[in-house]
């Protein structure tokens, strides 16, 4: 087998968080390109591999039969040499509230390029800070990835919050031959807003109701006739045993754009503040008529780099996470992302992907 040149990724560049590591690992596995990631999470209060990152590394080690050096907690340097991609059933229990969605963010792109379907069963946090809430993955990421010809099934068996975790999900991934170019350029007209305002454990239903009512009020202030169907849910003890609360709201447009925003309950933050934060952010997206919200931006970059053809999206100003994802994708694949601002002040991001083909799937036929 041809040995590809090792790529060194500086984990402290730009955002300096876990995302550079996640994207570098995924691309390393897909392209079978060895990587060394240095200064991992250098800009975080506790640099190095945290639980979530370590679980992602070790899952990918199994998935790709990789040689790995530095896969220990708080390690600031990692060398990873993948061999193949093995579609199979995988299971990991983080024993913490490590974000399940962020571990999925690492393994999903890789398993798309396996020779057969896979299931990844994870225990950890489903709704935790600084990560997509599980409803965001289902309601925003999933339909957005469909535009790249990617589909997955995600089942929430149990919800889990900070600090204990205890959430459990199953992700089923079907491999693809290649990723199509995704287009996110036409906003169309706002059609409806939906989502969920939830609570669990000893958190009273009134809190979820207050978040929902405030969110609906903010949306209706700007668009009095907007169809706004945010469900209020109290999770049963079978579905969530610890205390937790949050809101995820999603705007749908006539061209199929989905834009999400969210907030999570925390001590000393009033419910109406959470509802207002989430809905004000969503209103901002709708007013600017952008097709990709601030959190989705960085999550699309890896797929744009791998796609067959030119993908494009219209967003607000690029986040530091997105700039970081672009840096990693360019280093790993050699693609070039173009970023421009149009006359309406929206950011237009485009990239001609490398047209990556799944050789494992084709050789199976
Ligand atoms: N509220 C949210 N909704 C959707 N996605 C989110 C939300 N908050 C964060 N994300 C996404 O989660 C990821 C967080 O990346 P980041 O590098 O901060 O992760 P991390 O592994 O938690 O690292 P660190 O602990 O080093 O910050 C990004 O893809 C970001 O877009």
UniProtKB/TrEMBL annotation:
GO cellular component, one term: nucleus
Class of this enzyme: ligase
EC assignment: 6.5.1.4
SUPFAM superfamilies the record matches: EPT/RTPC-like, RNA 3'-terminal phosphate cyclase, RPTC, insert domain
GO biological process, one term: RNA processing
Occurrences of domain RNA 3'-terminal phosphate cyclase insert (ranges): 186-287
Residues in RNA 3'-terminal phosphate cyclase domain copies: 13-339
Catalytically driven reaction(s): a 3'-end 3'-phospho-ribonucleotide-RNA + ATP = a 3'-end 2',3'-cyclophospho-ribonucleotide-RNA + AMP + diphosphate
InterPro entries documented for this protein: RNA3'-term_phos_cycl_insert (IPR013791), RNA3'_phos_cyclase_dom (IPR023797), RNA3'_phos_cyclase_dom_sf (IPR037136), RNA3'_term_phos_cyc (IPR000228), RNA3'_term_phos_cyc_type_1 (IPR017770), RNA3'P_cycl/enolpyr_Trfase_a/b (IPR013792), RPTC_insert (IPR036553)
Keyword set, alphabetical order: ATP-binding, Ligase, Nucleotide-binding
Catalytic center residues: 321 (tele-amp-histidine intermediate)
Pfam families for the chain: RTC (PF01137), RTC_insert (PF05189)
GO molecular function: ATP binding; RNA-3'-phosphate cyclase activity
Residues where ATP binds: 105
Entry similarity comment: Belongs to the RNA 3'-terminal cyclase family. Type 1 subfamily.
HAMAP family assigned: RTC (MF_00200)
Function according to Swiss-Prot or TrEMBL: Catalyzes the conversion of 3'-phosphate to a 2',3'-cyclic phosphodiester at the end of RNA. The mechanism of action of the enzyme occurs in 3 steps: (A) adenylation of the enzyme by ATP; (B) transfer of adenylate to an RNA-N3'P to produce RNA-N3'PP5'A; (C) and attack of the adjacent 2'-hydroxyl on the 3'-phosphorus in the diester linkage to produce the cyclic end product. Likely functions in some aspects of cellular RNA processing. Function plays an important role in regulating axon regeneration by inhibiting central nervous system (CNS) axon regeneration following optic nerve injury.
Record NCBIfam families: RNA_3prim_cycl (TIGR03399)
Protein name stated in the entry: RNA 3'-terminal phosphate cyclase
């Amino acid at each position: 087998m041809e040995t590809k040149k090792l790529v060194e990724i500086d984990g402290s560049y730009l955002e300096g968080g876990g995302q550079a590591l996640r994207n570098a690992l995924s691309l390393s596995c897909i392209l079978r390109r060895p990587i060394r990631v240095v200064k991992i999470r250098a800009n975080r209060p506790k640099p190095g591999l945290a639980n979530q990152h370590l679980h992602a590394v070790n899952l990918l080690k199994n998935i790709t039969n990789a040689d790995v050096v530095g896969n220990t907690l708080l390690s600031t340097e990692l060398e990873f040499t993948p061999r193949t991609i093995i579609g199979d059933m995988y299971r990991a229990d983080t024993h913490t509230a490590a974000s399940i969605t962020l571990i999925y963010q690492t393994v999903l792109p890789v398993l798309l390029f396996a020779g057969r379907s896979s299931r990844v069963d994870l225990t950890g946090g489903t709704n935790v800070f600084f990560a997509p809430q599980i409803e965001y993955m289902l309601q925003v990421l999933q339909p957005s990835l469909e535009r790249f010809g990617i589909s997955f099934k995600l089942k929430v068996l149990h919800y889990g919050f900070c600090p204990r975790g205890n959430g459990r999900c199953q992700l089923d991934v079907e491999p693809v031959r290649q990723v199509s170019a995704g287009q996110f350029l036409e906003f169309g007209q706002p059609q409806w807003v939906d989502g969920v305002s939830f609570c669990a454990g000893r958190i009273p239903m009134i809190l979820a109701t207050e978040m929902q009512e405030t969110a609906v009020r903010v949306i209706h202030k700007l668009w009095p006739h907007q169809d706004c169907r945010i469900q209020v849910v109290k999770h049963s003890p079978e579905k969530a045993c610890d205390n937790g609360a949050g809101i995820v709201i999603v705007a749908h447009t006539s061209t199929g754009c989905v834009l999400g925003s969210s907030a999570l309950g925390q001590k000393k933050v009033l419910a109406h503040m959470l509802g207002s934060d989430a809905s004000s952010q969503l209103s901002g997206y709708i007013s600017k008529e952008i097709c990709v919200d601030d959190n989705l931006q960085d999550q699309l970059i890896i797929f744009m780099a791998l796609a067959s053809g030119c993908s494009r999206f219209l967003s607000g100003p690029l986040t530091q996470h997105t700039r970081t994802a672009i840096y990693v994708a360019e280093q790993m694949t050699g693609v070039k992302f173009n970023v421009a601002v149009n006359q309406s002040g929206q950011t237009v991001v485009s990239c001609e992907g490398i047209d990556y083909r799944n050789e494992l799937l084709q050789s199976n036929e």
